[in-house]
Amino acid sequence: MPDTSNSTLYIIGLGVNLPDHITPEATRAMSQCSRLYSIVQAPQRLWLPPGTLGKIEVIDAFQMYAEDKPRVQNYEHVARTIFQALDTCGSVGYVTYGNPMSYDSVAQNLVQYGKKSGLPVRIIPGISSIDTVLCDLGVDLAPGLQVYEATWLVACGIRPHLEAAVLLVQMGTFGSLRTNYQKRPTGASLAKLVTYLCEFYPGAHEVFLVRSSNGAGEPPHIRRFELRNLCAAAADDLAGASLYIPAVQHARFDNALVEGMETALKPDRGPDSVR
């Protein structure tokens, strides 16, 4: 492991819509770094701190991913490269979309490296796609939301609770453990997912593929499907999209428990109560 005694590792989330989602905290963190490793493909002038364009070294981490290689190996390679850069570059930042603690394996690997080495790690939160999808659809997080990685849901045989909505992320990589940025899968790649979900939901249940706006005045991309017809989705529908599945059942209240809660809220009118 490199000597990182005078270094800080920053893990920085920029949100989904650039530059509108970039927080002052994220801007300050980037300004502390001599080098940034970034998967952000928007022009640097949109997200780098003012006056730092050309002054902070920016490495495109996407160029470090080997096509058709297992994703976990690519993520490990990028994380190790970033960590090793601390030996010569001082403070270094990893810059990513959304919230870095939402489905970002590079960020998770960096957190683990930091814990093992005792390196100071600062994690800068950002608006995640979970937040933006709810806003795009105009639905509330309450009374509950189940969030799963789509492949993981099926591979682990997770049974969704039908009383709460489900959000499946990383739809465009469903069923593949490899890096395939040069390929654009269509809805046909979702056949196993549709078959699995139809074990729990009616085939006619309406679901939504949502890709939030990433800026430049572009509106969110929302497509409605009956669940059984989800395989008809086009490649553009899947790219960067999440799948929102509304609840199909109403949760049942424990009436006795609810009545007890109501009773507990009533003021005490006994002889010893404060008047």
Q: Could you name the key traits of this structure?
A:
alpha/beta, five-stranded parallel β-sheet, Cobalt-precorrin-4 Transmethylase, domain 1, Methyltransferase, Cobalt-precorrin-4 Transmethylase, Domain 2, 8 helices, 2 domains, 17% strand, five-stranded mixed β-sheet
Could you characterize what this model shows?
The chain is of the alpha/beta class and 275 residues long. The chain folds into 2 domains: 9-127, Tetrapyrrole methylase, N-terminal domain (Cobalt-precorrin-4 Transmethylase, domain 1); 130-245, Tetrapyrrole methylase, C-terminal domain (Methyltransferase, Cobalt-precorrin-4 Transmethylase, Domain 2, 2-Layer Sandwich), CATH 3.30.950. Helices cover 28% and strands 17% of the residues. The protein has helices spanning 24-31, 71-89, 105-117, 129-137, 150-155, 191-197, 235-238, 255-265; strands spanning 9-13, 35-38, 57-60, 92-96, 121-124, 145-149, 165-169, 206-211, 221-226, 242-245. Helix 2 (71-89) crosses helix 3 (105-117).
Give the topology, please.
Blueprint: E1 9-13, H1 24-31, E2 35-38, E3 57-60, H2 71-89, E4 92-96, H3 105-117, E5 121-124, H4 129-137, E6 145-149, H5 150-155, E7 165-169, H6 191-197, E8 206-211, E9 221-226, H7 235-238, E10 242-245, H8 255-265
Parallel strand pairs: 1-4, 1-5, 2-3, 2-4, 6-7
Antiparallel strand pairs: 7-10, 8-9, 8-10
Helix pairs in contact: 2-3
